[in-house]
Amino acid sequence: MGRPDKLLDKHYELATQMARTGASLKQAATELGIEITNEEAVLLMRRSAFNRVLWEARHRYFNELAKDPNFSRDTVVGKLIVQCQKLEEEGDWAKASDVLYKISKILGFVGPESQVSVFGELSQADLDAIRQNIESGAVPIKPN
Questions:
Q1: Helix H segments across the chain?
Q2: CA of 71: how far to CAs of 62, 66, 68, 85, 142, in Å?
Q3: C-alpha 102: how far from its chain's center?
Q4: Comparing C-alpha atoms, which of 42, 39, 40, 52 is closest to residue 12?
Q5: Region 36-57: what's the mean pLDDT?
Q6: Engineered SS bond to 126: which of 54, 76, 122, 142, CB 3.0-4.6 Å?
Q7: Is 108 strand, coil or helix?
């Protein structure tokens, strides 16, 4: 069996289904009710045109996900919590603790985001100038 001259509509449907579900070609064909032989599947997966269509379908799907108005920091945290629970159920405690650490960083519980600077936006040069003014007596220090 030779390869077809061009991609058919069902090939675009298969690529879209594969991109959205992460399914293999045979799984996507089964889900869509498209009959495809093993030989056809192997030939199709070797075609650069089909792989380009699959790549484009994946990027369109990722683009849709990123532009979804419901996608937020809370969505990311929720997904990470679910993944952490699955890792705990599988007994992979090290990876689960890594996920928890990442969640705490996102929420600002740890890391530089949780530290509050009492000096605000002052640079080192600003701090040096203030110190010099105080030491020279230009700025009076009021006792409490």
A1: 9-21, 25-32, 38-46, 48-67, 73-89, 93-106, 124-136
A2: 12, 7, 5, 21, 52
A3: 13
A4: 52
A5: 93
A6: 122
A7: coil
Q: Which residue has the tokens 């203030």?
A: 130
Q: Which residue is it, tokens 């009492």?
A: 118
Q: How many CB atoms lie within 10 A of CB 115?
A: 8
Prediction pTM value: 0.57
Q: What would the mean pLDDT of 3-15 be, rounded to a whole number?
A: 82
What is the rounded distance in angstroms from the CA atom of residue 88 to the CA atom of residue 82?
A: 10
Residue 143 has pLDDT above 80, yes or no: no
d(CA 69, CA 129) in angstroms, rounded, equals 47
d(CA 30, CA 24): 10
Residue 117: pLDDT band by 50, 70, 90 thresholds?
low
Between CA 28 and CA 19 the distance in angstroms is: 10
Average pLDDT over every residue of 50-68: 94
Q: Mean per-residue pLDDT for 53-69?
A: 93
Half-sphere exposure of 22 (CA within 13 A, CB side): 1
